[in-house]
Please model this.
Amino acid sequence: PLWEINANCRMVLELEGTPIGNEMKAIQQKWFSSFEEFIDHKDEIRYYDVGDGAALAEYLICEEYVFGEIPHELQKHIDYHSYGSELEMDDRYLFTTSGVFRYQ
Model:
């Protein structure tokens, strides 16, 4: 029906210019079987403005405390590149030129 097409067009316009909007095709291909499913779950997609796995690892560890709070003097001993490589292989993450997306 026409109202569904109009609703989908409004959603695309809302996303236009955002990181999720810029990577809409890649996101949909990775996690969703249809545009409608993507739209239904778009609010569950988390965006990280980082360039690679190591930067994401450092952000998750130091800012989001994924392993709990780690003393500053120990943070310099963490292998962010190794953990970042694991994140890059994790299906919950999508690495793009716009940044990294996570969907659970």
Summary: Strands lie at 45-48, 93-96, 99-103.
